[in-house]
Amino acid sequence: MITSVGYAGTVSEVEWADLAWRAGGARYGVAGIDDWRATVAMGDRAVQISPGKGWGNGVVDTSDAPEVLTAAPVASGTRYDLLVARRDWQTRQTTFAIVQGSAERAIPARATDVGIVDEQPLWLLRVVAGQSQVQEIIDVRVIPGDGGMLAFDQLALSYLGLLGTVVRIGDVVWSRVLNAVGTPTWRSAPSPDTDTGWVTLTPQNQAWSVAAQYGYQALAVRRIGFSTDLSGIIRNATQRVQAGFVGAHVPAGSRPRARTLLTCHIAGVEAVVEPNGRLLFARADLAPGTPIPLAGHWISES
């Protein structure tokens, strides 16, 4: 059973004290990590949602027992459905429901008529044709706190569009701001304590090696906060390295904001890392097998 506070009717002092800070601080939310948690349940395409507390658009709801819902079958391929808390101001009731989506891993269209019917996104469900169980349950809930909120997947950003919203997902803090031309956009910044450790670059193909050798470490990057360092060695075993060659790729999350020149102590060699992660040789003419030590430093985006 779901008990709701915030529809038409009387609100007690105790209820108001709870409603005001929860629903007044964030449009949507759940009280904690275990509130309204979805898990695979017994039965075809069944999911169970745990008891707990959540809110949306001025209504706070408390469920006191688990509830099982069933996704519709898929004729072919994959479909991503959305498990929601549906608030109906005509019936003054909140219920859990599943909104059918599409093959795209995205939050589908949902009801957003505040005061009539509004649907709060909770979980995205991946339903696959021929499979009796839901294959993936993606957490798109948010847990608001004083001055910000916690989310678990970037999909949540797609329904949190109000200017000034601040959301932490993993080690990245996202803020809803205006860009240079006045358009609302999400800006990201890593947590100051983010440390990826040394992550080895991905070679362009089998001809390239980024393994440790000649006393140098494997060609790798390490990001701490905004700052990223590159160090190590690369070589091409079979081809003469010339201008325009791409040797390796920097992983997403550690790439530079702008094209960055690397340090190389071999005369005539100029290597850069581009914002798309490519390690490009802008100038070079080296025999096959020549070890190329590189180093660099830059400021990364998210």
Key phrases:
single chain, 302 residues, mainly beta, Immunoglobulin-like, 2 domains, five-stranded mixed sheet, 29 strands, elongated, Minor tail protein
Low-confidence runs (pLDDT<50, min 5 residues)? Answer: none
Main sheet properties: 5 strands, antiparallel
Total domain modules: 2
Mean pLDDT across residues = 92
Distance between the termini: 42 Å
CATH superfamily of the largest domain: Phage fibre proteins
Q: Tell me roughly what share of residues is in helical segments.
A: under 10%
Order of helices and strands: EHEEEEEEEEEEEEEEEEEEEEEEEEEEEE
Protein name: Minor tail protein
Structural description of this entry:
It comes from Microbacterium album. This is Minor tail protein. By secondary structure, this protein is mostly beta strands. The chain is about 5% helix and about 45% strand. The strands form seven sheets. Strands 8, 9, 10, 11 and 12 form a five-stranded antiparallel beta sheet that branches. The mean pLDDT is about 90.
Topology diagram in text:
Layout lengths: L1 E4 L7 H11 L4 E3 L7 E3 L5 E4 L2 E5 L2 E5 L3 E4 L7 E11 L4 E10 L9 E2 L3 E12 L7 E4 L2 E4 L2 E4 L14 E4 L2 E7 L5 E7 L8 E2 L1 E2 L4 E2 L10 E5 L2 E10 L4 E2 L3 E4 L10 E2 L8 E4 L4 E6 L1 E2 L5 E8 L3
